[in-house]
Amino acid sequence: MTTIATPRAPEDPGAPPAASAAPERTAPQRPRRGRLAAGRRRTALIWALLLAGPNIALLLVFVYRPLVESLYLSTLQWNLGSPTARFVGLGNYVEWFTAPTTGRIVTTTVVFTVATVGGAMVLGLGLALLLDKKLRGRGIARTVAFAPYVLGGFAVGILWLFMFDPRYGLIQELLGWVGLDSPDWYTSRPWPLVMVIVVYLWKNLGYVALIYLAGLQAVPQDLKDAAAIDGASAARTLRSVVLPLLTPTTFFLLVTMLLSSLQSFDTIKAMTQGGPLGSTTTLMYSIYVESFVNGRAGYASAVATVLFLVLLAVTAVQLRFVQQKVHYA
Amino acid sequence: MTAATLLRPATPATAPARRRRPRPQVGSYVTMILATIVLGAPLLWMALASLKAPDELYTLPLQWFPAQPDLDNYAQAAGAIPLGRLLVNSIGLTIVGAGLKVALGLCCAYALVFLDFPFRKLVFGLVIATLMIPPQITIIPNYTLVASLGWLNTYQGILVPGLASAFGTFLFRQHFLTLPRSVLEAAELDGAGHWRKLWRFVVPMSTPTLAAVALVSVVTEWNDYLWPFLVVDDPSKMTLPVGLTLLQNTDGMTNWGVLLAATVVVTLPILLVFLVLQRRLVAGLTAGAVTG
């Protein structure tokens, strides 16, 4: 590569203009340095292409191209695999907004998202506060709590489907201990949705707790001590000192959990396939159903665009907030 | 519901009546143990159930421990779907996929930090923006592209569309920015080229980040479901999670023992990776989270 460092072309476009317009005196030195710099720059460019090129090319082909294409597809009436497509403009969007199922899908998505994100945040914070105490065996508890997060959503779904089995599942047995009958988890509303939410909470609780733990450990001890000296109770210290300091952590978790919740697919696929009667069909799941079950790729692209806009809005809020208030270390 | 029972029941135990001096630690211990049981029980229950004979699975009241633990369910699962082949596919695709992802991210981040080239900021922006684009919107166009390439039911069809590394590139870049410039400048004076600087200096100084990114990539590749599920319907090319779908669909009535045995095969490897390399994996999965 060193050969490229001494380029033959005297008028390199990348060379600083000052080099050519240099006064006579410094002429013997200046052009050489300029040429050397231009050569280095060209070497750097070649290396950049070699090193970053493959990654960027993959991103362009498999992320940015489909992003644009999806917007185009959303204006077509087109079935997956069909050779013909018809331009319908915003027709797919109009259809989505007026479809009788849309209201139910949006409601399901909102209920699922609020319950999973809210539940995981509250329970996760509680768990983090508990595991932040100097208890023996808290390392084991942390490991057990976090383990579900590394498991695949589909396998987790299967495992819990067995747990919820109305006749031979562990859940019905536990409910029996306290004298309750197991509801029909698989079939009668609203239990299928409740079931999926419980599983999602189980899987993500440890993650939230872990991030909160990291946040808690960054809270300066002297602040807590000062609050204690002022006679603040543990609850008061939590509310007035710890929680405000955890705001960045809370916000980070809120956004990441929101994004992952809105995109969840495999657990629902394993447990309910969006049913019964669409009672567990979220926005994300309906994209899969419309494109790969019903084959309506154009319409599904329109739904995907709607979801994309929601996710984009969530991210935009995050970025705004990050710039204004949150200090990342 | 299960989750709601996590923390509440132990509260009364905070102040045991017997003692005059309150022992708040007792309540904490009870809560912690309860939480650990609730969170850990499903995994234990799955492992035990996979070793039970059918008549044991379907007897009431339920038995925790199998009377005669055997691997019969595993043998049956292997008979219904090519379990060994799926395992090999999953391991292979995970290693190759995660390896390439790390390599691509590493090289890309090196260029972004240590090379001066035009539009560097724009390129970085392109990488970062990717993190905000949900994979769902890319699915249909990518599916049609992969299908038109004749890549359905192929390993490259599963692998290639997900290879580009945005997360890895981002983490590596953040780490590289903290590396001492003087070391690299010294290396350059000694005549080290970029390739040498990358492998002999930058990589050895980045092992924790490298391990974290590698592990996170391994976990995501192993668990990936939707894309391989769409691209592959030939059992010999499937990954383990997709193979589970097959097992779930083989007959109308669920054979829980067999299905759970296969679920153990899917979850156990990644669980072991987690248990052995916990600290590094956690460092990776929580990277980007806030510290203050």
From TrEMBL, chain A:
Belongs to the binding-protein-dependent transport system permease family. Keywords: Cell membrane, Membrane, Transmembrane, Transmembrane helix, Transport. The lineage of its organism: Bacteria, Bacillati, Actinomycetota, Actinomycetes, Micrococcales. It is a multi-pass membrane protein. CDD domains: TM_PBP2. Signal peptide: none annotated. PANTHER family: ABC TRANSPORTER PERMEASE PROTEIN (PTHR30193), INNER MEMBRANE ABC TRANSPORTER PERMEASE PROTEIN YCJO (PTHR30193:SF37). Residues 17-29 have a biased composition (Low complexity). It is found in: Cell membrane. Residues 1-34 are annotated as: Disordered. It comes from the Bacteria. GO terms for cellular component: plasma membrane. Pfam families: BPD_transp_1. This is sn-glycerol 3-phosphate transport system permease protein. The chain crosses the membrane at residues 44-64, 105-131, 143-163, 191-214, 241-262, 299-322. InterPro entries: ABC_transporter_permease, MetI-like, MetI-like_sf. GO terms for biological process: transmembrane transport. Residues 106-318 form the ABC transmembrane type-1 domain.
From TrEMBL, chain B:
The keyword tRNA-binding does not apply. The keyword Protein biosynthesis does not apply. The chain crosses the membrane at residues 26-48, 91-115, 122-143, 155-172, 198-219, 256-277. GO terms for cellular component: plasma membrane. It is a multi-pass membrane protein. SUPFAM superfamilies: MetI-like. Keywords: Cell membrane, Membrane, Transmembrane, Transmembrane helix, Transport. It is found in: Cell membrane. One of its GO terms (biological process) is transmembrane transport. It holds the Pfam family BPD_transp_1. Its main location: membrane. Residues 87-277 form the ABC transmembrane type-1 domain. Gene3D superfamilies: MetI-like. PANTHER family: ABC TRANSPORTER PERMEASE PROTEIN MG189-RELATED-RELATED, SN-GLYCEROL-3-PHOSPHATE TRANSPORT INTEGRAL MEMBRANE PROTEIN ABC TRANSPORTER UGPE-RELATED. Belongs to the binding-protein-dependent transport system permease family. This is sn-glycerol 3-phosphate transport system permease protein. It comes from Promicromonospora sukumoe.
